[in-house]
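Worked example 3 (structure in, sequence out).
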């Protein structure tokens, strides 16, 4: 109420009429009730950001010119298009992420790019289940359009001007860009309805459901397989589609994976990943780091030491004792740099 009282006093001091005061106060109260920051227009947004109105306006109406596209090869031979914003636009997007988007609550089932959550949290609900179903959403970010993002803000109480402004700063070529720091969390907000419906289905059929960005996982008893058609119908009715090539039904007598982790008997890093690190450490100790890299024709590989420590830290996040063991082994290597 301090904000509302302060706003009321400012409106009176500026000489605005009672009708205009009422409109502004109701607008602000609605946003505050939704736990969102009050933004009246583009100029107000620029003041909050600490950016000159003319500069912010330039980014709003020329935002598509501040991206560079990079083609990242996939394992299947295709390419993923990464649309990276410029440094200044990325700073603007990060401000929106931290000051606006993080005010939105997302589903408990969403584990990707949520503060305090990780791939381990995404995998744990699926440990020891008879069946694990993996579903990949096809073209996840490009499917989230300008219109869908606009209505997130507009339906939350923001004006059309503010909703358009925020959406323009967060989209590229009318869709959500894969490369913006704001896109993953914004996608979680857009997927709130999808998460609620899939979570509701999971509760109804006694299954577990989690989502990590575009990776959807259902697990439970064998009977959940007959609900794949229902899953598909829900996903498609929310304007998404399934990547049929990545739909997997994993039984308990085979390795069951969730976002790259095995869940048959606890959450664990894949055996071949740990084996690879174990071999790298063995050869570095036996032949020396440089000789090992020369033998593997990777002597010019940058940050090899950091790469191996990163592998060990990743293992530690999932399997603390095993990760600590690898870190101690790495400390015993005589590094050449």
């Amino acid at each position: 109420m301090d904000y509302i009282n302060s706003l009321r006093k400012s409106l009176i001091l500026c000489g605005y009429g009672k009708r205009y005061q009422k409109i502004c106060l109701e607008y602000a109260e609605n946003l505050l009730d939704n736990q969102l920051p009050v933004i009246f227009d583009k100029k107000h947004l620029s003041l909050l950001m600490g950016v000159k109105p003319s500069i912010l306006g330039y980014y709003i109406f020329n935002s598509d010119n501040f991206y560079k596209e990079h083609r990242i090869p996939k394992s299947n031979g295709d390419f993923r298009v990464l649309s990276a914003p410029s440094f200044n636009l990325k700073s603007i997007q990060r401000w929106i992420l931290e000051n606006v988007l993080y005010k939105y609550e997302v589903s408990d089932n969403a584990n990707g790019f949520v503060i305090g959550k990780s791939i381990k949290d995404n995998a744990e609900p699926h440990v020891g289940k008879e069946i694990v179903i993996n579903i990949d959403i096809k073209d996840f970010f490009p499917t989230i359009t300008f219109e869908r993002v606009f209505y997130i803000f507009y339906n939350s109480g923001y004006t059309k001007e503010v909703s358009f402004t925020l959406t323009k700063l967060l989209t590229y070529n009318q869709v959500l860009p894969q490369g913006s720091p704001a896109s993953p969390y914004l996608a979680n907000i857009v997927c709130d309805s999808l998460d609620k419906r899939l979570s509701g289905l999971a509760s109804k059929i006694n299954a577990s459901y989690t989502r990590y960005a575009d990776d959807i996982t259902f697990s439970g008893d064998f009977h959940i397989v007959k609900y794949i058609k229902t899953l598909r119908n829900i996903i498609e009715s929310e304007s998404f589609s399934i990547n049929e090539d990545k739909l997997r039904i994993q039984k308990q007598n085979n390795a069951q994976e969730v976002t790259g982790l095995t869940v048959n008997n606890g959450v664990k890093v894949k055996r071949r990943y740990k084996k690879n690190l174990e071999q790298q450490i063995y050869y570095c100790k036996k032949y020396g780091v440089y000789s090992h890299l020369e033998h593997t024709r990777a002597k010019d590989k940058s940050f090899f030491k950091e790469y191996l420590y990163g592998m060990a830290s990743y293992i530690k996040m999932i399997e603390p004792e095993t990760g600590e063991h690898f870190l101690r082994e790495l400390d015993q290597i005589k590094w050449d740099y």
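Notes: The chain is about 50% helix and 10% strand. The CA atoms of residues 55 and 165 lie 13 Å apart.
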